[in-house]
Specification:
The structure holds two protein chains of two kinds. Chain A has four helices and five strands. Chain A is of the alpha/beta class. Chain A is globular and about 40 Å long. The chains are: A alpha/beta, B alpha+beta.
């Protein structure tokens, strides 16, 4: 069965989804990524979906699940490269991609991960700063 | 079932028996949407809806077929796709079309969400006999 390659760059695992994603390959990616995070002690996961022509509910849920698992394993996830047409469709479909951080491209995504990782190290126990308005 | 007389082109019929077939349905829907001159956003919406419905056919219907074709009516072009299974059927269609309603572990957005992505959405289901969903997406 095909698997999606996972690269390690510094403290970050990088995944570029280049195939028209089959459901089972997406499930394998969740498992492979979880193992690699633990194995490498990576602090960030960057998922590049530039090549994805659609994100449906299954793929959207897979991305949310990866972000949740990574969070539990002490790594942040950033999804980069979403096409405008995909973003429009996702919103109309009703998918909110809970818990997923996004950046426009890989470079901005790497910068975001590095900021997140520094913030985590500075204040390991502090809750994230948040406005009280509306809560 | 059809409200207007549609000029049909060759129908592509694809079996839906596994994950790889869902991908093939997406590809076929993309080709049809391109040949019907849908905009990129409308192509993406049509392909996403087809992906959801093909997966429903596979998971809830126990497999089935997709029939995809380009159509034209009243000078407009578009795509039409039917998803047919002989599965257990849907007991309460209104409930199944509610956002957040799910019989499985999904998000409950597949059916309701795909209806929002297309211009025409018809669903017929007979418990114990199967389900048929037909969608249309027209070029603007």
């Amino acid at each position: 069965m095909d698997r999606i390659p996972i690269l390690k760059i510094g403290d970050t695992l990088v995944v570029t989804i280049q195939t028209d994603l089959q459901d089972q390959i997406a499930v394998s990616l969740q498992e492979d990524l979880s193992e690699r995070i633990v194995e490498t002690g990576a602090r960030g996961v960057l998922i590049d979906i530039t090549a994805l022509e659609i994100v449906d509910t299954f793929i959207g849920r897979m991305l949310s699940t990866i972000a949740s698992i990574s969070r539990v394993l002490d790594a942040d996830t950033v999804v980069v490269g979403m096409r405008p047409a995909v973003a429009i469709t996702l919103v109309e479909l009703g998918l909110s991609l809970k818990g997923i951080r996004t950046a426009l491209d890989a470079e901005k995504g790497m910068a975001l991960l590095s900021r997140l990782s520094t913030a985590d190290d500075d204040q390991p126990d502090a809750p994230p700063a948040r406005s009280a308005i509306g809560e | 079932m059809s409200l207007t007389r549609e000029e049909l082109t060759a129908v592509e019929e694809l079996p839906i028996k596994g994950d790889a077939d869902v991908v093939r349905v997406r590809q076929s829907m993309r080709s049809a949407a391109i040949s019907a001159a849908l905009s990129l956003v409308d192509q993406t919406k049509a392909v996403t809806a087809a992906s959801e419905l093909a997966r429903n056919t596979l998971i809830h219907g126990g497999g089935g077929v997709a029939q995809i074709e380009t159509v034209s009516a009243q000078g407009r072009r578009g795509v039409r796709a039917a998803f047919v299974d002989q599965g257990p059927g849907i007991a309460d269609i209104d409930l199944a079309l509610t956002d957040g309603f799910t019989t499985g572990t999904g998000l409950g957005l597949g059916l309701s969400g795909s209806r929002r992505l297309v211009d025409g959405f018809e669903i017929e289901s007979v418990p114990g006999e199967g389900t048929r969903v037909v969608i249309h997406k027209w070029a603007r």
